[in-house]
Automatic annotation (TrEMBL):
Pfam families: RAMP4. It is found in: Membrane; Endoplasmic reticulum membrane. Interacts with target proteins during translocation into the lumen of the endoplasmic reticulum. Protects unfolded target proteins against degradation and facilitate correct glycosylation. Interacts with target proteins during their translocation into the lumen of the endoplasmic reticulum. Protects unfolded target proteins against degradation during ER stress. May facilitate glycosylation of target proteins after termination of ER stress. May modulate the use of N-glycosylation sites on target proteins. Interacts with SEC61B, SEC61A1 and the SEC61 complex. Interacts with CANX. Residues 1-25 are annotated as: Disordered. This is Stress-associated endoplasmic reticulum protein. The keyword Transmembrane applies. The gene is SERP2. It is a single-pass membrane protein. Its main location: membrane. Belongs to the RAMP4 family. Keywords: Endoplasmic reticulum, Membrane, Transmembrane, Transmembrane helix, Unfolded protein response. GO terms for cellular component: endoplasmic reticulum membrane. One of its GO terms (biological process) is response to unfolded protein.
Length: 50
């Protein structure tokens, strides 16, 4: 196999890695509404002077 053929094979093999760099897959599980509400409630409660 010549050097040109080796480079072509290597480029094809690694092209997916280069084109998808930084790609983050979407998750199907989102933050639950009650968890978000509890977090907001606690954070606001801590900022209210007594």
């Amino acid at each position: 196999m010549s050097a040109v053929q080796r480079m072509k094979v290597a480029n094809e093999r690694h092209s997916k890695t280069i084109t998808q760099r930084g790609h983050v897959q979407k998750t199907t599980v989102a933050a639950r509404p009650h968890v978000t509400s509890a977090f907001l409630f606690i954070s606001l409660l801590l900022h209210v002077p007594l």
